Amino acid sequence: MGVPADTLSMQVNNDRLTLAVTKVPQIYLYGVIDPGAPQRFEALVRSGKIPAGSDVYLNSPGGDLNAGLALGRLFRAGAMVTHLGTPRRSRHSGYAIKAAVCTGACGYAYLGGLYRWAPTGGDRIGLPAYLVADRKAGAPDPAPVSPDAVALYLKDMGINPAGLTPASTASRDGMVWLTADQMMSTGLANNGRLPLMAKYQPSPQAPHLVLSQVDRQGEHRITLQCGPGGVTLTAYDLVGTDRAREIVARGTRSYFEINGQETLTQQRDGARAASDSVMITRPYPPTQLVKLLFAQSVGAWVGGRTSAFRYGFSFALGPVRSTLREYYQACWRAAPWPLQ
């Protein structure tokens, strides 16, 4: 493509077919990350060719670490989504399966994505051991970018540095290679979902709990209201006014799920469009509260005449378990229903 071998190449796929399928452009960044890469990328952003929310696919052996950090900040400023992937091949170049590798500066750029997909197949991501491991005070800095600058970047990106120190040691090439499981369990990757949030509002008479999560599809919320003699469970799927009306019109039943099992099913009229949300509300049996609050997952769905139409969401509750325990105790203090 006429690009020097030591320069990061940028391929913008914003054709009609791509936009019809993915809704946003697919950006492929491949090759060595050079010092001028952030400026070229930012120019494409300013021109409108790379809009907010774009999918960015990375395949780079690294390069200038300062440039990698700067690219990551641009990704985050544009709420972009990072993946590992190789650039699209032309129809005349033949078919080939090629794994993507993202190391060093590329690995840190990847962490700038608001949503970060874990590597799949043969794709690999690695970070330099000397920046991953804890260094002793006063130790010499082997890189032109200090670990303090990297630490500040990770803090700004909301990345816990502990996730960069897996149990395994660095390989012979000086890289710490991160597996998909390690990345998902430590929050380095989120596969399109921001962390689940739990907000507990204490009240002697009616304690209130809000579970909420934002992903690429929008915001999802479940509220639980305890009070004397009863519990109310409500789900909100914030999808926009027109989409909410469409989902409700096509739905023939609505229900909640606990640990993947359907419950509180209602045929017709169980879901309604409320402003910009699909809303499902049900009274919940107080004696089943422990089952709900100590479940592995909770969700809310609208189904159609066939299994082809199913719209909703689910939450994995493990990360907010301590808040759920507190809320469970508060509910029973507010309304101590007899056990059965």
Quickly count the helices: 10
CATH architecture annotation of the largest domain: Alpha-Beta Complex
Number of strands: 18
Number of domains: 2
Q: Which structural class is indicated by helix and strand composition?
A: alpha+beta
Helix percentage range: 25-40%
Order of helices and strands: EHEHEHEEHEEHHEHEEEEHEEEEHEEH
**What is the CATH level 1 assignment of the largest domain?**
Alpha Beta
Strand content: 25-35%
For the biggest sheet, the summary is: 6 strands, antiparallel
Strand order of the largest sheet: 9-10-11-12-16-15
The CATH topology of the largest domain turns out to be: 2-enoyl-CoA Hydratase, Chain A, domain 1
What does the radius of gyration come to?
24 Å
For the record, give the distance between the C-alpha atoms at the N and C termini, rounded to a whole number: 72 Å
- The global form is globular
Task: Please describe the structure with a list of short key phrases separated by commas or semicolons.
340 residues, alpha+beta, 2 domains, six-stranded antiparallel β-sheet, five-stranded mixed β-sheet, 10 helices, globular
Description:
- By secondary structure, the protein is α+β, with helices and mostly antiparallel strands.
- It has ten helices and 18 strands.
- The chain folds into two domains: 178 residues, 2-enoyl-CoA Hydratase, Chain A, domain 1, CATH 3.90.226; 138 residues, Immunoglobulin-like.
- The strands form four sheets. A six-stranded antiparallel beta sheet has the order 9-10-11-12-16-15.
- Helix 2 packs parallel to helix 3.
- The longest helix is centred in the C-terminal third of the chain and has 14 residues.
- The termini are far apart.
- About 3% of the residues have low confidence.
